[in-house]
Amino acid sequence: MMKNDAPATGSDPKPLHAPAAARWREIGRLAAVCAVATLLVLVGISAYFNVIYATHGPEPTGTPTPAPPTGTPTPSPIPTPTPPWVRSFTLADLPAGPETLVFTEDGTRAAALKDGVVTVLDTATGKTVETLTEPAPITSCYLMVDQSILVYFYMDATDHTLKVSTYNFVTSLHYVRQTVPFPAGTTLKLTDYSKGMSFVVYQTATTGGSSTTYDLGWLNTSSHVRYTSIHHAMVRMLATNLIFHIYSESPAHALYQGSTQVTGLGGHPVQLFGIDAVDNAYAVSLSDHRTVYVVKGNAVSRTFQLPSPDYQALFTDKTTVYAAYDGYVLDLLATKTSRLDVPTGLVFVAASGRQVYLKDAAGTYYVFDMPFE
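and the corresponding C-alpha coordinates:
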Protein backbone atom coordinates (compact mmCIF):
# COMPACT_ATOMS: atom_id res chain seq x y z
CA MET A 1 0.00 0.00 0.00
CA MET A 2 1.47 3.51 -1.02
CA LYS A 3 1.92 6.58 1.36
CA ASN A 4 -0.52 9.62 0.73
CA ASP A 5 1.61 12.88 -0.15
CA ALA A 6 -1.30 15.34 -0.67
CA PRO A 7 -1.12 18.65 1.34
CA ALA A 8 -3.16 19.15 4.41
CA THR A 9 -6.43 20.89 3.92
CA GLY A 10 -7.16 24.43 5.41
CA SER A 11 -3.83 26.21 4.24
CA ASP A 12 -3.35 29.09 1.53
CA PRO A 13 0.15 28.80 0.16
CA LYS A 14 1.83 32.11 -1.40
CA PRO A 15 2.77 32.12 -5.01
CA LEU A 16 6.43 31.67 -5.85
CA HIS A 17 6.79 35.26 -7.41
CA ALA A 18 5.48 37.22 -4.37
CA PRO A 19 8.93 38.67 -3.18
CA ALA A 20 9.74 40.21 -6.63
CA ALA A 21 6.38 41.93 -6.84
CA ALA A 22 6.90 43.53 -3.42
CA ARG A 23 10.23 44.94 -4.49
CA TRP A 24 8.75 46.52 -7.59
CA ARG A 25 6.00 48.08 -5.54
CA GLU A 26 8.65 49.62 -3.22
CA ILE A 27 10.64 51.00 -6.18
CA GLY A 28 7.49 52.55 -7.57
CA ARG A 29 6.77 54.32 -4.29
CA LEU A 30 10.37 55.72 -4.15
CA ALA A 31 10.17 56.93 -7.75
CA ALA A 32 6.95 58.73 -6.99
CA VAL A 33 8.54 60.44 -3.98
CA CYS A 34 11.59 61.51 -6.08
CA ALA A 35 9.36 62.85 -8.80
CA VAL A 36 7.40 64.94 -6.32
CA ALA A 37 10.62 66.24 -4.70
CA THR A 38 12.08 67.13 -8.09
CA LEU A 39 8.90 68.92 -9.02
CA LEU A 40 8.99 70.89 -5.80
CA VAL A 41 12.64 71.91 -6.40
CA LEU A 42 11.86 73.04 -9.93
CA VAL A 43 8.88 75.02 -8.71
CA GLY A 44 11.07 76.67 -6.03
CA ILE A 45 13.82 77.60 -8.53
CA SER A 46 11.25 79.01 -10.92
CA ALA A 47 9.68 81.07 -8.17
CA TYR A 48 13.15 82.40 -7.14
CA PHE A 49 14.04 83.55 -10.63
CA ASN A 50 10.58 85.08 -11.04
CA VAL A 51 11.22 87.16 -7.93
CA ILE A 52 14.71 88.19 -9.19
CA TYR A 53 13.30 89.11 -12.58
CA ALA A 54 10.47 91.07 -11.03
CA THR A 55 12.90 92.94 -8.75
CA HIS A 56 15.92 93.61 -11.01
CA GLY A 57 14.65 92.99 -14.50
CA PRO A 58 16.54 91.04 -17.12
CA GLU A 59 20.33 90.79 -17.09
CA PRO A 60 21.89 93.69 -19.08
CA THR A 61 23.50 92.93 -22.40
CA GLY A 62 26.28 94.89 -24.18
CA THR A 63 28.09 97.84 -22.52
CA PRO A 64 26.57 98.62 -19.11
CA THR A 65 25.13 102.11 -18.70
CA PRO A 66 26.41 103.79 -15.52
CA ALA A 67 23.81 104.70 -12.96
CA PRO A 68 23.01 108.39 -12.82
CA PRO A 69 24.71 110.21 -9.88
CA THR A 70 22.67 110.91 -6.82
CA GLY A 71 23.12 113.84 -4.45
CA THR A 72 25.77 116.58 -4.90
CA PRO A 73 28.50 115.46 -7.31
CA THR A 74 32.09 115.42 -5.93
CA PRO A 75 34.40 117.56 -8.10
CA SER A 76 37.64 116.03 -9.35
CA PRO A 77 40.64 117.13 -7.23
CA ILE A 78 42.75 119.89 -8.76
CA PRO A 79 46.40 118.78 -8.95
CA THR A 80 48.75 120.79 -6.76
CA PRO A 81 51.24 122.67 -8.95
CA THR A 82 54.91 121.84 -8.41
CA PRO A 83 56.65 124.86 -6.86
CA PRO A 84 59.59 126.32 -8.77
CA TRP A 85 61.86 126.03 -5.75
CA VAL A 86 63.72 122.92 -4.61
CA ARG A 87 62.72 123.31 -0.97
CA SER A 88 61.78 125.93 1.59
CA PHE A 89 62.48 126.31 5.29
CA THR A 90 62.49 128.73 8.18
CA LEU A 91 65.27 129.41 10.66
CA ALA A 92 63.48 129.82 13.98
CA ASP A 93 66.69 130.43 15.94
CA LEU A 94 68.25 132.85 13.44
CA PRO A 95 69.36 136.06 15.19
CA ALA A 96 67.54 139.13 13.89
CA GLY A 97 69.51 141.09 11.30
CA PRO A 98 72.62 138.92 10.99
CA GLU A 99 75.72 140.65 9.70
CA THR A 100 76.74 137.54 7.72
CA LEU A 101 74.68 134.51 6.69
CA VAL A 102 76.22 131.60 4.77
CA PHE A 103 75.00 128.13 3.76
CA THR A 104 76.98 124.94 3.24
CA GLU A 105 77.05 123.52 -0.28
CA ASP A 106 74.67 120.67 0.63
CA GLY A 107 72.29 123.16 2.24
CA THR A 108 72.01 121.29 5.55
CA ARG A 109 73.68 123.96 7.70
CA ALA A 110 73.69 127.74 7.97
CA ALA A 111 76.01 130.00 9.94
CA ALA A 112 75.00 133.48 11.07
CA LEU A 113 77.24 136.13 12.61
CA LYS A 114 75.60 138.65 14.93
CA ASP A 115 77.12 140.77 17.71
CA GLY A 116 80.40 138.84 17.75
CA VAL A 117 78.79 135.39 18.01
CA VAL A 118 78.38 132.75 15.27
CA THR A 119 75.21 130.65 15.44
CA VAL A 120 75.24 127.36 13.51
CA LEU A 121 71.75 126.20 12.49
CA ASP A 122 70.18 123.07 11.07
CA THR A 123 68.13 124.16 8.05
CA ALA A 124 65.81 121.13 8.35
CA THR A 125 64.62 122.11 11.84
CA GLY A 126 65.63 125.76 12.02
CA LYS A 127 67.18 125.10 15.42
CA THR A 128 70.62 125.96 16.76
CA VAL A 129 73.21 123.21 16.41
CA GLU A 130 76.08 125.07 18.06
CA THR A 131 77.02 128.55 19.22
CA LEU A 132 80.59 129.72 18.60
CA THR A 133 81.87 132.24 21.13
CA GLU A 134 85.41 133.43 21.79
CA PRO A 135 87.14 135.59 24.43
CA ALA A 136 86.70 138.56 22.06
CA PRO A 137 83.90 139.31 19.57
CA ILE A 138 84.14 137.42 16.28
CA THR A 139 84.50 140.08 13.59
CA SER A 140 83.81 138.10 10.41
CA CYS A 141 83.37 134.61 9.03
CA TYR A 142 83.62 132.98 5.60
CA LEU A 143 83.21 129.56 4.05
CA MET A 144 86.27 127.79 2.72
CA VAL A 145 86.23 126.80 -0.95
CA ASP A 146 84.86 123.29 -0.26
CA GLN A 147 82.10 124.95 1.84
CA SER A 148 82.32 122.41 4.65
CA ILE A 149 84.60 124.53 6.85
CA LEU A 150 83.88 127.94 8.32
CA VAL A 151 86.79 130.33 8.94
CA TYR A 152 86.25 133.07 11.51
CA PHE A 153 88.42 135.75 13.10
CA TYR A 154 88.70 137.79 16.27
CA MET A 155 91.21 140.16 17.81
CA ASP A 156 92.43 138.98 21.21
CA ALA A 157 93.14 142.05 23.31
CA THR A 158 94.91 140.06 26.02
CA ASP A 159 97.93 139.33 23.81
CA HIS A 160 97.27 141.71 20.87
CA THR A 161 96.92 138.92 18.35
CA LEU A 162 94.60 138.06 15.49
CA LYS A 163 93.13 134.59 15.98
CA VAL A 164 92.21 132.61 12.86
CA SER A 165 89.85 129.78 13.80
CA THR A 166 87.95 127.12 11.86
CA TYR A 167 84.73 125.19 12.42
CA ASN A 168 84.00 121.93 10.60
CA PHE A 169 80.29 121.55 9.81
CA VAL A 170 80.66 117.77 9.46
CA THR A 171 82.61 116.94 12.61
CA SER A 172 81.65 120.04 14.70
CA LEU A 173 85.33 120.46 15.62
CA HIS A 174 86.59 124.04 15.98
CA TYR A 175 89.92 125.39 17.13
CA VAL A 176 92.43 128.19 16.53
CA ARG A 177 94.46 127.66 13.37
CA GLN A 178 96.77 130.67 13.58
CA THR A 179 97.78 133.45 15.93
CA VAL A 180 99.28 136.62 14.41
CA PRO A 181 100.60 139.51 16.51
CA PHE A 182 99.42 143.09 15.89
CA PRO A 183 100.15 146.41 17.56
CA ALA A 184 97.93 147.33 20.49
CA GLY A 185 94.82 149.25 19.43
CA THR A 186 94.46 147.51 16.05
CA THR A 187 90.90 146.43 15.26
CA LEU A 188 89.86 143.99 12.58
CA LYS A 189 87.70 145.51 9.83
CA LEU A 190 87.47 142.88 7.07
CA THR A 191 88.83 139.45 6.30
CA ASP A 192 88.95 137.20 3.29
CA TYR A 193 90.56 133.87 2.56
CA SER A 194 92.03 131.84 -0.24
CA LYS A 195 92.27 128.14 -1.04
CA GLY A 196 95.01 127.32 1.46
CA MET A 197 94.15 126.96 5.12
CA SER A 198 97.26 128.91 6.15
CA PHE A 199 96.75 131.75 3.69
CA VAL A 200 94.27 134.32 4.93
CA VAL A 201 93.82 137.88 3.76
CA TYR A 202 92.83 140.27 6.47
CA GLN A 203 92.20 143.98 6.81
CA THR A 204 92.75 146.11 9.87
CA ALA A 205 91.86 149.68 10.70
CA THR A 206 93.98 151.87 12.94
CA THR A 207 92.54 155.24 13.93
CA GLY A 208 95.05 158.02 14.24
CA GLY A 209 93.84 161.54 15.00
CA SER A 210 90.90 162.40 12.76
CA SER A 211 91.69 159.94 9.95
CA THR A 212 91.48 156.19 9.58
CA THR A 213 93.93 154.18 7.48
CA TYR A 214 93.38 150.60 6.30
CA ASP A 215 96.02 147.93 6.06
CA LEU A 216 95.74 144.77 3.99
CA GLY A 217 97.97 141.71 4.08
CA TRP A 218 98.08 137.94 4.04
CA LEU A 219 99.13 135.40 6.57
CA ASN A 220 101.65 132.65 5.95
CA THR A 221 102.70 131.03 9.19
CA SER A 222 103.06 134.20 11.31
CA SER A 223 104.18 136.70 8.70
CA HIS A 224 102.17 139.38 6.96
CA VAL A 225 102.58 141.99 4.24
CA ARG A 226 100.66 145.26 4.28
CA TYR A 227 99.13 147.60 1.74
CA THR A 228 97.81 150.95 2.87
CA SER A 229 94.63 152.90 2.07
CA ILE A 230 92.58 149.84 1.19
CA HIS A 231 88.77 150.10 1.21
CA HIS A 232 87.71 146.57 0.24
CA ALA A 233 89.62 143.52 -0.93
CA MET A 234 89.24 140.08 -2.48
CA VAL A 235 91.90 137.46 -3.08
CA ARG A 236 92.48 134.34 -5.13
CA MET A 237 95.50 132.09 -4.66
CA LEU A 238 96.79 129.84 -7.43
CA ALA A 239 97.16 126.38 -5.90
CA THR A 240 100.06 125.40 -8.16
CA ASN A 241 102.64 128.01 -7.19
CA LEU A 242 100.99 129.86 -4.30
CA ILE A 243 100.85 133.16 -6.17
CA PHE A 244 98.36 135.63 -4.75
CA HIS A 245 96.08 137.73 -6.94
CA ILE A 246 94.88 140.49 -4.65
CA TYR A 247 92.29 142.95 -5.91
CA SER A 248 91.28 145.84 -3.71
CA GLU A 249 89.52 149.17 -3.73
CA SER A 250 90.85 152.47 -2.50
CA PRO A 251 88.56 154.78 -0.54
CA ALA A 252 87.86 156.53 -3.86
CA HIS A 253 86.79 153.16 -5.37
CA ALA A 254 89.79 152.90 -7.68
CA LEU A 255 90.75 149.26 -8.29
CA TYR A 256 94.16 147.80 -7.54
CA GLN A 257 95.83 144.50 -8.30
CA GLY A 258 98.22 144.17 -5.42
CA SER A 259 99.65 147.68 -5.17
CA THR A 260 99.27 148.46 -8.91
CA GLN A 261 96.25 150.41 -10.07
CA VAL A 262 94.13 148.61 -12.68
CA THR A 263 93.98 150.30 -16.09
CA GLY A 264 91.07 150.43 -18.51
CA LEU A 265 88.37 151.70 -16.15
CA GLY A 266 88.14 155.08 -17.88
CA GLY A 267 88.30 156.92 -14.59
CA HIS A 268 84.98 155.48 -13.42
CA PRO A 269 84.65 154.51 -9.75
CA VAL A 270 83.88 150.82 -9.35
CA GLN A 271 82.87 148.35 -6.68
CA LEU A 272 84.53 144.95 -6.55
CA PHE A 273 82.06 142.06 -6.12
CA GLY A 274 83.77 138.79 -7.02
CA ILE A 275 86.61 136.67 -8.35
CA ASP A 276 86.10 133.40 -10.23
CA ALA A 277 88.16 130.19 -10.25
CA VAL A 278 90.46 131.38 -13.07
CA ASP A 279 91.34 134.67 -11.34
CA ASN A 280 89.06 137.00 -13.24
CA ALA A 281 87.97 139.84 -10.97
CA TYR A 282 84.58 141.50 -11.46
CA ALA A 283 83.70 145.10 -10.63
CA VAL A 284 80.56 147.11 -11.39
CA SER A 285 80.57 150.77 -12.36
CA LEU A 286 79.26 153.14 -9.70
CA SER A 287 78.56 155.69 -12.45
CA ASP A 288 75.81 153.83 -14.32
CA HIS A 289 75.44 150.64 -12.16
CA ARG A 290 75.22 148.63 -15.41
CA THR A 291 78.74 148.27 -16.77
CA VAL A 292 80.62 145.24 -15.44
CA TYR A 293 84.42 145.22 -15.85
CA VAL A 294 86.23 141.90 -16.13
CA VAL A 295 89.79 142.36 -14.86
CA LYS A 296 92.70 140.05 -15.56
CA GLY A 297 96.00 140.94 -13.93
CA ASN A 298 96.16 144.72 -13.70
CA ALA A 299 94.04 145.55 -16.77
CA VAL A 300 90.43 145.31 -17.91
CA SER A 301 90.05 142.39 -20.35
CA ARG A 302 86.43 143.08 -21.39
CA THR A 303 83.17 144.63 -20.28
CA PHE A 304 79.49 143.70 -20.51
CA GLN A 305 76.22 145.40 -19.66
CA LEU A 306 73.64 144.42 -17.08
CA PRO A 307 70.06 144.44 -18.39
CA SER A 308 69.04 146.88 -15.67
CA PRO A 309 70.73 148.86 -12.91
CA ASP A 310 68.00 147.85 -10.44
CA TYR A 311 69.64 144.63 -9.30
CA GLN A 312 69.35 143.30 -5.76
CA ALA A 313 72.77 141.67 -5.76
CA LEU A 314 75.70 140.66 -7.96
CA PHE A 315 77.62 137.52 -7.06
CA THR A 316 80.04 135.00 -8.53
CA ASP A 317 80.74 131.30 -8.19
CA LYS A 318 83.59 129.32 -9.68
CA THR A 319 82.62 129.80 -13.33
CA THR A 320 80.00 132.51 -13.76
CA VAL A 321 78.41 135.77 -12.62
CA TYR A 322 74.85 136.09 -11.36
CA ALA A 323 72.59 139.12 -11.12
CA ALA A 324 69.55 138.89 -8.85
CA TYR A 325 66.52 141.01 -9.70
CA ASP A 326 62.99 141.10 -8.30
CA GLY A 327 61.36 138.12 -10.00
CA TYR A 328 64.35 136.52 -11.71
CA VAL A 329 68.05 135.66 -11.49
CA LEU A 330 70.37 135.78 -14.51
CA ASP A 331 73.47 133.73 -15.29
CA LEU A 332 75.36 136.43 -17.18
CA LEU A 333 78.27 134.41 -18.55
CA ALA A 334 76.34 131.53 -20.11
CA THR A 335 76.65 131.25 -23.89
CA LYS A 336 72.95 132.03 -23.98
CA THR A 337 71.88 134.01 -20.94
CA SER A 338 70.29 131.57 -18.50
CA ARG A 339 67.31 132.93 -16.58
CA LEU A 340 65.67 131.60 -13.44
CA ASP A 341 62.19 133.01 -12.83
CA VAL A 342 61.20 133.30 -9.18
CA PRO A 343 58.14 134.73 -7.40
CA THR A 344 58.26 138.49 -7.02
CA GLY A 345 58.87 139.94 -3.60
CA LEU A 346 61.70 137.55 -2.74
CA VAL A 347 65.04 139.03 -1.70
CA PHE A 348 68.43 137.51 -2.55
CA VAL A 349 70.27 136.18 0.51
CA ALA A 350 73.12 133.94 -0.60
CA ALA A 351 74.42 131.59 -3.28
CA SER A 352 76.10 128.23 -2.84
CA GLY A 353 77.30 126.43 -5.95
CA ARG A 354 74.42 126.32 -8.43
CA GLN A 355 71.82 127.02 -5.74
CA VAL A 356 70.37 130.40 -4.88
CA TYR A 357 68.77 131.31 -1.54
CA LEU A 358 65.97 133.88 -1.50
CA LYS A 359 63.77 135.03 1.39
CA ASP A 360 60.25 136.43 1.63
CA ALA A 361 58.96 139.10 4.00
CA ALA A 362 57.74 136.46 6.49
CA GLY A 363 61.23 134.99 6.89
CA THR A 364 60.81 131.82 4.82
CA TYR A 365 63.84 130.83 2.77
CA TYR A 366 63.49 129.33 -0.70
CA VAL A 367 66.21 127.33 -2.46
CA PHE A 368 66.34 127.38 -6.26
CA ASP A 369 68.53 125.46 -8.68
CA MET A 370 70.06 127.69 -11.31
CA PRO A 371 69.23 126.17 -14.73
CA PHE A 372 72.00 124.87 -16.93
CA GLU A 373 72.25 125.76 -20.61
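(Above: one complete record from the training split.) Helices lie at 18-56.
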